[in-house]
Amino acid sequence: MNMRNPIARARGHGSAKEGVHHWYAQRASAVLLIFLVAWLIYGVLSLAGGGYEASRAFIANPVNAALLGLLLVVVLYHAMLGLQVVIEDYVHRPALEVALYFVTRAGAYVLMALGLVHIMKLALGA
Amino acid sequence: MIGPYYKPQMTSLMSITHRATGVFLSVVGAPLLVWWIIATAGGPEAFARFEAVIGNPLGMLAMAATILCLCYHLLNGIRHLVWDTGRALDLRTAYTLGWLVLIGTVVLTAVILGVLL
């Protein structure tokens, strides 16, 4: 007979105590993205028909450059967390699961780096 | 969710659609956004190549699908965030908000495509 209080077992070990981190990060990034995506939709609509010069001027604006960089990082973070859940739920071959996990993370980081460098290039007028 | 006893319902279909649109936005939408930034930074010729690709029928389809997925995922995502606070979980409200998301998606997508085209 186990005389320990179940709460002691629950608190003591088993969990790394970070169980809600992924869940919380997905939602926190989602809340930020409501505002950032609304801004991007408005921004892109204002560029309609403006061609190259309108896009260049838009991204070169320091406030837009900062918001676009922030959006890029947050949206790709949100995407990598979401893709992770989809992979975990539907891919049941361990090797493929690990490979897809790696590819989606690497892809997100590469897109972040590429996007940020080119935003900075425009914002700094190089 | 697929089996002999499964009957399609709005709640489960909208849930799987949330995932599908999220995957599409990750795989097609995000690269499109980054390509737009790179093309703009690359100068007029690079931008012209970008415009040529999103201007051809397949490019326009990808663009339209991205906008549709974005509108759905944005609006349905808000519905999920409301649920996460423990509100609106009864079936009636879940369906009402579901219809609002679907109608909102059609309206928002139509407005955006209307301005862009």
List keywords for this structure.
heterodimer; A: 126 residues; mainly alpha; 3 helical TM bundles of succinate and fumarate reductases; 5 helices; B: 117 residues; 84% helix
User: What's the helical proportion of residues of chain A?
Assistant: over 70%
Tell me the series of helices and strands of chain B, N- to C-terminal: HHHH
Question: Describe the biggest sheet of chain A?
Answer: none
> In the residues of chain B, how many domains can be counted?
1
Uncertain stretches of 5 or more adjacent residues of chain B = none
**Residues in β-strands, percent of chain A:** under 5%
Radius of gyration of chain B: 18 Å
Rg of chain A, Cα atoms, Å = 21 Å
Dominant shape of chain A: elongated
Shape of chain B: elongated
- For the record, the CATH class of chain B is Mainly Alpha
- The helix-and-strand class of chain B reads mainly alpha
What is CATH's topology name of chain A? 3 helical TM bundles of succinate and fumarate reductases
Q: What is the CATH superfamily classification of chain B?
A: Fumarate reductase/succinate dehydrogenase, transmembrane subunit
Task: State the separation between the terminal residues of chain B, measured CA to CA.
Answer: 39 Å
